[in-house]
Amino acid sequence: MLNLSYKGAVCAAAVALYSAVPTPGHAQEEPYDIYLSMSYSGNDWQAEASNMIKALAASSDYADKANLEVQVAGPNTQRQIQQINAMVQAGADAIVVYPISPTALNNVVRSACARGVEIIAYDGEITEPCAYNVTINQSEAGRKTAEWLVDQLDGEGDIILVNGVPGTSVDTARTQAAKEVFAQHDGINVIGEADGMWSQAVARTELNKLMSTRDWSDVDGLWMQVGCYTANAMQLESGIAPEDVAPCAGEGSNGGRIQMLPLGTEVDGAELPYAPFGAPRISYAAPPYSGAMAFKLAVDILEGKEVDKRTELPLPLITNETVQLCETGSWDEQKAGCNVFNPSLVSNPGWFASIFSEELPQLGLDAALEGQPEN
Amino acid sequence: MMDQARKQRFRYRFGMLGGSLNGMMLAARRGQAVIVTVFVFLALMWLNAGLSPYPLNYFDISFLASGGATTAIAAAGQSLVILSGGFDLSAGAVVSLVNAVLATSMDPAQEEASVLLWTLIGIGIGACVGAVNGFFVAVMRLQPIVVTLAVMFIVQGITLLVMASPGGFVSPSLGMAYLGDVIPGLLPAPVVLLLVVAVLWLWLKRTSFGVTLYAVGSDSEAAGTTGLHTKAVTFATYVLAGGLYGLAGVFVSAQTGAGDPLVGNSLLLPTFAAVVIGGTRLGGGKGGIVGPLFGAYVLMIVVNLLLSLNVSAYYSTIAESAVLMIAVLMGSLSRDSVLSKRLRDLKAGLGARRAGQLAGQRAREDRRLTFTAPGEDVPPSSFLQRHGPTLRHVLPSYICLLFVIIVSQVVLSNVFGNQRYWDSLLVLSSFLAILALGQGAVILTGGLDLSLPWCIALSGVMLTGLVGGQDIGLWIAIPIVLLVATTIGVLNGLGVVALGLSPIVVTLAMNGFLQGAALIWSDGSPAGFAPPSLRWLMTSKVMGFTPVTLFMVVFVAFAILLLNRTKFGRQVYAVGNSELAARLSGVPVGRVIVSVYVLSALCAALVGILLAGFSGQASLGMGDDYLLPSIAVVVVGGALITGGRGHYVGMLGGALLLTAMQMLLAGTSLPSAFRAVFFGVLILAAVVAIKE
């Protein structure tokens, strides 16, 4: 009996291993094995993304459909390649990946596809055609925010750029698009540029260096990928009145959005600089729910639904006109239009606030904070 | 006489047998580390195969072989440099450069590019970078760690100039050749590639080059006086190592089929881990490259194992560090190893105490010998006589600093009379200046502390988590953070002293443990703020200066006194100059070494606390940017990486110099790729200037 079932397992394994054609679509009694290979770059984004994926997997809609197992590859591409391969060996039905490199995974992804494993990448992209990608349009993010800044300055002013990690495609796409916009306006001068590495801490160090030979009064505007919260905090520290801070394009953090709320807004647990003062800002960031979306698509694909190879998430652009405080942060409340959370709930100002997705009603604030689904 | 002759005959008769048996025993002892590495690798493979739901087939083995090959080849190169007594930080950067060059210059229309040609191009590029390293290390006699650090920055910059973002094309023919099968179903190509590397090494080892390489690594001076060509061999070692990194770059290109300018940068620490797991001794003279090849695969198979064992993501760095420690410990275990010696010492000590024979148990009375009083007519030595040698190593960093500031004035204007510039310089350099005391003290004893990044991050994260944003919380939080740091330092020190492991292994593993601890503590997202007083210290202005600058004045005074005016300071220098001489002179060597690691951890914790105040909150990656600079400022400040020489004033100068250089580059409108190149060139220029 035992022997038989063992043989059965081996047979099933052999079939799974050697059948080049995936067999999605048929009703399956066992839940799907879905693996997550995330990177870990030391910022809050990864933690939030992983919380939201875990929450979705634990939600009543998905708990019976799929088992999720999470592994971290660190910043090491070689390790991620090995990890994906190990996941294939371990019998994954689908692998959700935060790709460390858009190109380095191509071969391992191709071989995983050939063994019938679905690969879904989120945030970063995998260029191998058999992979599914869930992402935002990075160039558009760079362009839209740059255009907003030019409008704010009426086409004239000295600005500072703080980019992300040089050498990554996300940074290149955003920065190039933004620079193209600035180049079209003769009145806009880029007087300083630094690599902020998508970190508030690095942004502060770099801005400190940039401002050592300048005065904040020389700076009319800022375009940053991460760090508007810090830049405005530094302006306040240097004695600039809250109503006079320079307009800043960028930053999807909760701290940044709290600062955008009009001066005097009632907010729980606020304390300068994590407090409302009507900072002129356009807020954008890659949404951390993209991982959860990739997980949802993985299940959809395994269930045989038609899914596009490329899923472009709507760009979460929030301006001072559209920013709105949430009371509890439930999905329903966010659907009604709120998009920033009380500091008493989100104690870390660097925490990313773009967590709302029309298509993921399982995920509210608790999902991103604690990995707890709405249902 | 008779006896002699009989012995000789006996030897003559059985010499072959006895010799080979002895030889085999000797070879086994020598190769213990390699054998253990192979054993560990096989055990992990077996465990992994046992845990996997499916039988391991050829495809899996083939994939595993290619998965570890890049790290393995790079580790082989690193191993050569380490055998020569050096250290190469440029390894990962070269891998990226070769990948970028191949991916941008291969013609996408040409599916069948020549494998041999492009391999040679890749190896050639790596060898060229290696030649630059070799020139500065062998000919200019600069310290390898700074040279390769500077070259690393330069190469990273050039890579970004070659390729700004991932993309490009690498011909599939390369992939076919390097990832395919030599004998289908039996022998994957990466295995053959590694075999070729290993066989070449085994041949090279027996040539005069190989002998000289070991001699240089064991004792460079002795090798030189014996008449060996130490310069040429050191130079050739870096060129060869560069070539191997180049080959690793070619392999990555084949493996990925495209280019990514950052692909190799994270390879650096794994190559060190692979080298030490493989039993090559840091500091040179012992080991080989076969061990490191297997070491790389041990690291790779651990990834599979973590998955099979379903280890939670936050614990993965902890598990990896544990494997690193265990593998290295097993490789060094024997009757002569430090651990067994320490155990015997401990046993003997306990026995002596029971018998009442311990020196410390004797009656306390003055047994000092009476010396004659020194002559009273010795003229007091002049200032230059007393401090000349120190000044010679300390002053250059300040001269360079002055030069950089003058250039800043010319380029950026508004520097000299600008209080904000000086304030920024002092605040930004304070982090490095504090780290320089800890790292400096460790380096003075001949060690190295690689656990700084996550010691900083863990301290910052714990602090903001514990204070609850209130000043009052500091009274509890700071003691706890410092206590944790002390524990970290003690553990680092015990690892070095009691286990007898290389400081790099211990602190590298500790870094992994701390990373796991920080992730578990913060659950991936650090909470809380720095309290107002800490933020005031780091960001407010009192009469135009940030309060922390005053704190730094006190800290610098304390550091100078500690290292130069206390018994502890003198003991640190004594241990660094010669551990044996220090021990025989009655210096408690073990205690001193443990203390410098505690000092280093405390300094890192202080930086974590101050950084949290500076940013207003803590983040997990906040220590990452401080490891290599902390080593660089110590060396740029005139200290010897092998220990014994250096002065805190010089290290402070190094911290100011590095910060001033970064501020100068940040102020220019150069693209970031050029900035990296300039930064590297400036560091090189600074160390050359210091040397002169």
The mean pLDDT of chain B is: 87
Strand content of chain A: 5-15%
By CATH reckoning, the class of the largest domain in chain B would read Mainly Alpha
Helix content of chain A: 25-40%
Write the layout of secondary structure elements.
The complex is a heterodimer of chains A (375) and B (692).
Chain A: H1 2-18, E1 32-38, H2 44-58, E2 66-72, H3 77-89, E3 94-97, H4 106-114, E4 118-122, E5 132-135, H5 138-152, E6 157-163, H6 169-183, E7 188-195, H7 200-211, E8 221-224, H8 228-237, E9 248-249, H9 254-260, E10 281-283, H10 290-302, E11 310-312, E12 318-319, H11 331-335, H12 365-370
Parallel strand pairs in A: 1-2, 1-3, 3-4, 4-5, 5-11, 6-7, 6-8, 8-9, 9-10
Antiparallel strand pairs in A: 10-12
Helix pairs in contact in A: 2-10, 5-6, 7-8
Chain B: H1 2-30, H2 32-51, H3 58-83, H4 91-105, H5 115-139, H6 144-162, H7 172-179, E1 181-183, E2 187-188, H8 189-206, H9 208-218, H10 220-225, H11 230-256, H12 268-277, H13 290-308, H14 316-332, H15 338-355, H16 383-412, H17 419-444, H18 452-467, H19 474-497, H20 503-522, H21 532-539, H22 548-564, H23 567-577, H24 579-584, H25 589-615, H26 627-636, H27 648-667, H28 672-691
Antiparallel strand pairs in B: 1-2
Helix pairs in contact in B: 2-13, 2-14, 3-8, 3-11, 3-12, 3-13, 4-5, 4-6, 4-11, 5-6, 5-11, 6-28, 7-11, 9-11, 12-13, 13-14, 14-20, 16-27, 16-28, 17-22, 17-25, 17-26, 17-27, 18-19, 18-20, 18-25, 19-20, 19-25, 21-25, 22-23, 23-25, 26-27, 27-28
InterPro entries (chain A): Peripla_BP_I, SBP_2_dom
Domain Periplasmic binding protein (chain A): 34-306
Family (chain A): Belongs to the bacterial solute-binding protein 2 family.
